[in-house]
Design brief:
The structure holds two protein chains of two kinds. By secondary structure, chain A is mainly alpha-helical. In chain A, 80% of the residues lie in helices and 1% in strands. Chain A has one domain. In chain A, helix 5 packs antiparallel against helix 6. Chain A is globular and about 60 Å long. Chain B has a single domain, classed as Winged helix-like DNA-binding domain superfamily/Winged helix DNA-binding domain (Arc Repressor Mutant, subunit A). The chains are: A mainly alpha, B alpha+beta. Chains A and B meet through helix 1, helix 3 and strand 1 of A and helix 2, strand 1, helix 3, helix 4 and strand 3 of B.
Amino acid sequence: MADIDRLVHRPSAYINETGVPQLICGLLVFLFGGSELVTSVLPRNSLAQQGPRWLAVLFCVTNIWIARAVYRKYVFPRGGYVEPRQRRVAGISVAGAIGAAGALFGTIFWAGRLNLESRPICPAFAVIFAGISFAAGVRERSAPAAWFGAYLLAIAPVLWWIPGGLYDRFLWLAVAVGFPMAGFGAIRLLIFLKSHPLPEHNTHE
Amino acid sequence: MNDVDRMVHEPARLTIMALLSGAEEADFLFLMRETGLTKGNLSSHLAKLEEAAYIAIEKTFRGKIPLTLVRLTKTGRSALEKYRKTMNGLLRGVK
């Protein structure tokens, strides 16, 4: 018999193992940064220039619906359906991440107004996000989260040297965070689908 | 040892209840995969837990597919908590 604490955390661990949360969240962040970067190099006032931006907006509006559809069509028929209970610790982590992202937006807004030196801001936020990810990895005993923290720490100096203003560096930070997160989620989802074939018979009573 | 709730103490039922305590609700397939029990075995344990009012079972359909949703009741949650405390008390001092 497995230990009770592990079993109690199993529903939320199961949802994480499917890779869907990382895939959707990573795509959201990547599309936000990537679409703005692509838009800046495409011909001005063309339809092609607006395309990536609208794709990001569309995904932003529909991401919850897409995640639900993936769960319903691919995940739950294979591994079963579970709705994890909201835990206080998970709530604190989400609030921390939202707070850090809010602080990043606020800093970008005020840095322009106050003429602050913009170069160290994005690397500093990369270090803060690295700390959050690493702490979450240690607390949840999740090696990928801890490795992601190490990766963010490694890219912090790269962000320092990226040419352009604060907003450009911020967009590159979004791409650097979103792309590996979405890739990791996609790999996890593929592994999940491969290791959980559809049951042959009706498994319900 | 008389304080130990035999309904919860059985390993398969304890596993089911521990899994459900971390969830709002779960379906039959999830419980079957996670517990490693057979369909018949799981059904029998769920029936006993439902009889004790520790879990609530709702039989519904998702499209044309039958869906059995299971959730821990308030009584079940407090029974599991009481069982934990009792076992911790009994095992205290045992090395």
